[in-house]
Amino acid sequence: MAMQPHSKKRVCYYYDSDIGNYYYGQGHPMKPHRIRMTHNLLLNYGLYRKMEIYRPHKATADEMTKFHSDDYIRFLRSIRPDNMSEYNKQMQRFNVGEDCPVFDGLYEFCQLSAGGSVAAAVKLNKQASEICINWGGGLHHAKKSEASGFCYVNDIVLGILELLKYHQRVLYIDIDVHHGDGVEEAFYTTDRVMTVSFHKYGEYFPGTGDLRDIGAGKGKYYAVNIPLRDGMDDESYESIFVPIISKVMETFQPSAVVLQCGADSLTGDRLGCFNLTVRGHGRCVELVKRFGLPFLLVGGGGYTIRNVSRCWTYETSVALGVEIANELPYNDYFEYFGPDFKLHISPSNMSNQNTPEYLEKIKNRLFENLRMLPHAPGVQVQAIPEDAVNDESEDEDKVDKDERLPQSEKDKRITGEGELSDSEDEGEGGRRDNRSYRTPQPRKRPRLDKDAPALKDELKAEDSKDDVKNMSVEEPKKDTVPNP
Amino acid sequence: MAANMYRVGDCVYFETSPKSPYQIRRIEELNKTASGNVEAKVMCFYRRRDLPNPLIQLADKHQMAQSEDSPVAMKLKKICLKTPVGEEQAAQAVLDPALAAMEEESSDLPGTDGLAPKQRHQAKHRELFLSRHVETLPATHIRGKCTVTLLNETESLLSYLNKDDAFFYCLVFDPSQKTLLADKGEIRVGSRYQTEVTNLLKEGEEDPRIGSELETLVWTPEHGLTDRQIDQFLVVSRSVGTFARALDCSSSVKQPSLHMSAAAASRDITLFHAMDTLHKSGYSIESALSSLVPASGPVLCRDEMEEWSASEANLFEEALDKYGKDFADIRQDFLPWKTLKNLVEYYYMWKTTDRYVQQKRVKAVEAESKLKQVYIPNYNKPNAALISSASGGIKPGAVLNGGTNGTAALPPAQLCLSCQVTTSNQWYAWGPEHLQYRLCGSCWQYWKKYGGLKVKTANAFGESEAESTKVRPDGDETALSASHRPHRCTVLNCAKEFKLRAHLARHVATAHGSGEGARPVMKTRAAFYLRASPFTRLARRLARALRRPRHYARSPFSPINLQQVKHECSIAMAGVGVGAADMRASGGIARARGAVGTVANRLAAARGQPSPLARAHEWLLLTPRDRMPKPAHVAFPKPPKAPDGSLMYERVASRAELEARRTEPAPVQPLKRRAFDDINGLDSHVNHSVGTGAGAIREAVAAPPPAKRPNKHPAPMQRPSREQYAAMCARAQATGQPLPAHVFAHVNGKPTNITGRGGRRHVISWMDAPDDLYFRATDTAKVARRTLSCGELRRGARAPWRAMRSGAGAAAAAAAAGAVLATAGAGAGAGAPTGAGKTAGAGAPLQLVILD
């Protein structure tokens, strides 16, 4: 866990002044205006002047069809509110109409949102920046040829595809209250992108994101889902976010991170049901930033727009490593923030249905899955030369020296993670040995055993039995997983 | 306290019948009814016992499939999840014999999931089935809170059993279709869903993308300026903006005070423009400053908020009232000269104004009937099933002192059916009456909460029997009655009931006009009119059945016996000639009486006067037109005729011409007068909408009568060429006069403020402009007007604010009230430029309708 101190970074920010004027329609909760509100807050907080501000290009159809199907993009390009009736059949096929209405400038809106994320990814690839922000992006529900959940074009997938040109492994983290199904589905069968989504699960859109959805084929174990219940507060969120992300970083060892900062996980959201404050939400940004990897921040959900702009403003300040006052500066939309006109919000007194035990169990189950990953450090040793393009690699090496800790140091820290629980688990090691003994695993590396102490004793007997089964089933598969 | 506070989103027990278990519901809404009661709109959870039998089997299969990940189970899971099972047969089809066998086996085993049989039994009581079924129940029937969570496979059922009032669910039950589904989406796998993963670039390969094509740099932090310098520059750009507003004529009308100008100049658009300027001038304050103040005058940035006129704002609010936030419709019907983007931007800014706050307050009052939480005290009344001394077979003493008075003597039926205890503070009758089962207090509570007995009774008349004979129908009945509960309108003081939700929705939309996303009444209600054909009209006269036209007019829905009508008509029409019938049907054609002259002649002839036409009485003949007497004075003489016979009206100057005329230096006019014209003359251009136009001013400027909607086709702004423009600037500098406003519009070419319109309108901010007024003349006012002399009327029209002398007592004839009010206000009466009379009011107090 290459934790870095809270540091100043070069931050690029993508914004188009038109974005706030797209309007999904009467009564629709998605309001692009929130992005403009954020922008105005950034200006008046003086954060604007501390970043590189870019106006993104409009992504072309060619760029979008890197992920989306041609006919879907063609459809998006041609549909307008005044010719909708001619497209009845296609609208049904592409799920456009109800949640994802046809509105004026729909295609342009998609172009701007996707253009921002793609440009940001290219920027990171060129190492011209350490952190890129595109609050207009983050539309994580969009599928390959289907709109879903207010999302039409999946800018995140497009951005990640761009990052994959220079990065062997990209980590995607989703802290929207909804499951990031579009991104997960797009990369469900690849081991080069790990998708980690924290979301409300159960009787909730989009219905996916079960703990058992872990990826398929080569991508098995590369989809991580953390199903949560109503009322997540800052404390419990961090209690699950930190260990999971640390573990993921440790085992997957990505070289770039994309964080979807959907703000509907904030308290009092019109659609959400979590109880996070701006601080708790921003804490996730801070934690991910500390890993010091090329970092793309995108927006996402968020339907109580005053809180969305609060949140994203704060997260921009976190990315910049700048403290900002709790008192909101005057701006065109100041009145939206009444009656207190403060940056930070307080949680409600709703009850948290996620008990510590529940979170603990989820965590343990996920840890077990993560242990199934081919061992990361080995991967990385091989990956570095392949990862880079001549002069870029030099740059990256430099960055590595500056930003990352040497491998040995990392290893030490990883051991440290185990230490947290070692005193009790010392004896448990035997149990672990037992298990590995029962299912001989030639490919198992010593590191796996080092992870062992992390396994909590809450693991039930039956779970470990499952485990055994899984492993034995997985055995042939593991061989096919190429160690790049 | 907190325990009895129920919020929206809480899961609660509802008691709908004293004998059956509580129903478990989740509160979706709490509404106060007109009578002050609180009703809860709730979503239903169903218990196992509420489900039809085949579905329960399905549910069992599902659970088993969850706990074991064997391939068979997986297969089963898929079937279960994907087959909506309606009928028993369908359920049977799913029940593969092999699976059934497996099920038997697993259920016989004492808890493959580590549960004892008793726990297994109890766990079934904790399982619920979510439904999308929503019903409305009185909040007073709430009997406590519980929690319902989606079961996660990492959890053991024990964790639920160990907690009171904790339930779980896995499946969703659809009560109308009797299906059971897993509430689970799926991630699809296949080339149609996954993306092709980009390969890493090979060594030496470069990404062909060029950064400059993907993005435009707007600001970089890499500059030599300090924060302080940037702040200073922002202040300067704001002050330039203030000054620009001072120079700009239209702005000075909108913002009469310096403070307002300064506030307007401090809006974010100015700041963004300042930052852009700084960036474009390479972060050199000096060159940025000079581009803020080009030779053409200081730069002026205005956003939609400032851009809109008072009347546009009023139109917008009116439109919002009518259409809601359907901006496309608003644009089409109210503000076609704005773009959709203008509207959206303006809308979000408008929300910051106090006008919006007022509206919100009104809405808040409306929403008061929706509660967030409700306090329901503990329910203490004894349950009907409580066995009291009279009805129970046991003496009260025996119950209360349990054991002291020969409890052992109790017959087996008097034991607690569930836990077999013999002593309890309270006993409750349970099951069919003839069996005389009873439960102890704690088992009764368990039964009410979890819908079962703690222990699976081996008794032949055990739980299942009792349930099926008595309780099941009972439960069904309540479920049924609940589902047939009428939908009640939630609007205050209405509470009408409807059978179907759709009807309720329609009612809300039409009667209250506030349904979700519902269009207001005007749009949804279809107008119809009855067109009476000649035969209908004929029938009306002929048919006896229709002899009560007034009655039918009042009750247009009462049926008419058409057969009878037809019959009568055919009889009547057989008697009358068709021609005559036609005649009468059309209500009689105007009688051809002939011209007066011929009639007169005929009359004369009839009198036996044989004299020829010419010599008939002169007074009977019409005077030829040219010999008619001429009036002494023609108020509106007809214009001369053109050779082709058409009338030649005086040409009215076009808007562009007028503007051109105004921009020309008018050396004849004194300086002061010009400025006045400049402002007010401009106003007259927009007074069709702005509402400040005074007739007098219009006269002075000789503006054309307002076109109906000139803004719809914005005339191309007459823009001076570069040379003309330079000359104008020079002239303006020489004379010390400000440039006409449209010149600024030309100058001000900043990128952020493109309004999409042809040119800048000269508008008055709606915040500063007086409210629109229009005068509605009542009959008494009109009568009173007639009593005024012509001169008085004119005077009144020119000076509408001046009180009228009550016109020589003449007004008193019409007005008992006496005082003639003429307080139309300074800016009144834009609507009807009828010159006279509109300010003369009398009698009843003036009806000033403020268009707010």
TrEMBL record, chain A:
PANTHER family: HISTONE DEACETYLASE HDAC1 (PTHR10625:SF10), HISTONE DEACETYLASE HDAC1-RELATED (PTHR10625)
Family: Belongs to the histone deacetylase family. HD Type 1 subfamily.
Protein name in the entry: Histone deacetylase
Biased composition (Basic and acidic residues): 398-416, 448-484
Pfam families the UniProt entry points to: Hist_deacetyl
Compartment list: Nucleus
Transmembrane spans: none
The enzyme's E.C. designation: 3.5.1.98
UniProtKB/TrEMBL annotation, chain B:
Keywords: DNA-binding, Metal-binding, Nucleus, Phosphoprotein, Zinc, Zinc-finger
Coiled-coil residues: none
Domain ELM2 stretches: 185-296
All residue ranges annotated as the SANT domain in the record: 303-355
Superkingdom of source: Eukaryota
PROSITE patterns for this protein: BAH (PS51038), ELM2 (PS51156), SANT (PS51293), ZINC_FINGER_C2H2_1 (PS00028), ZINC_FINGER_C2H2_2 (PS50157)
BAH domain sequence ranges: 4-184
Record domain C2H2-type: where: 487-517
Region (Disordered): 463-482
Flavoprotein in keyword set: no
Subcellular location: Nucleus
Family from the record: Belongs to the metastasis-associated protein family.
Name listed for the protein in its UniProt record: Metastasis-associated protein MTA3
